[in-house]
Design a protein that fits this description.
76% of the residues lie in helices and 0% in strands. It is built from eleven helices and no strands. It has helices spanning 2-12, 33-56, 68-81, 84-115, 117-131, 139-146, 150-174, 178-186, 191-226, 234-243, 247-275. Helix 4 (84-115) packs antiparallel against helix 5. The protein is globular. The mean pLDDT is 85. It is a multi-pass membrane protein.
Amino acid sequence: MAGDTTRVLSASLPAAPAGRRRRGMVPLEPVSPQARWLLGLAFFVLFVAVWAFFTLGGFVSPTFLASPITMVQEAWLLFTEYGFIHDIGMTVWRVLGGFILAAVVAVPLGIAMGAYKPVEAFLEPFVSFCRYLPASAFIPLLILWAGIGETQKLLVIFIGSVFQIILMVAVTVGGARKDLVEAAYTLGADSPGIVRRVLIPGAAPGIAETLRLVLGWAWTYVIVAELIGSSSGIGHMITDSQALLNTGQIIFGIIVIGLIGLVSDFIFKAVNKKLFAWASL
């Protein structure tokens, strides 16, 4: 019966003419690297065009949304008169500092949780609980404990990143192929050897991908960290511009954060691809 139904459905579908190439978008069909770049660039061009249409055309008040031209003018002022390059450097330092600190703590804990089930049973409830706590909720306590200096800002990014990394690394390590583990035991490996020579190498590409993703999340915490008690950084500039209703500077600050995050993501991808080329085989 099932075979008859399949034959009927197949017969009812129109056959594609021989030699005709498929046109249009096809589900799951990849695109060439050149087409990917062009399509990605086309979206940004369309976005700026729509933005310019509504702002330069007078449909939106400049008080609420600056035009692209005004934003470029404000960007020039930020770099030439207000030392914005220093703000960028401080923000990058805070993101990288908090993220590296989180990775140093979280990766070993995640490997231990993924490799040893008693460790997972002991830590996972607490880590899962903390994972849902917003990093911004800790700012009042962090100001009391660490003041309003750089330590407080690093800790905000650390708290926002560390629990995510721990759980994602644990899942990656725990998903190792069991046949490889059994084969290692058969060849005489002990438990530390299994972790060191099977689990960690096998999970390394996944751990690197986890770090890449969480680095992107760390950029979302830095503005929160710089909103209170900060005298430098992109978040500080955005807060000052808000008080002056300078939407051009606010938009440019947001764009700079996006561009830096995009560049860091591309660098992370390139490094991962070079270090773990075998993972895509």
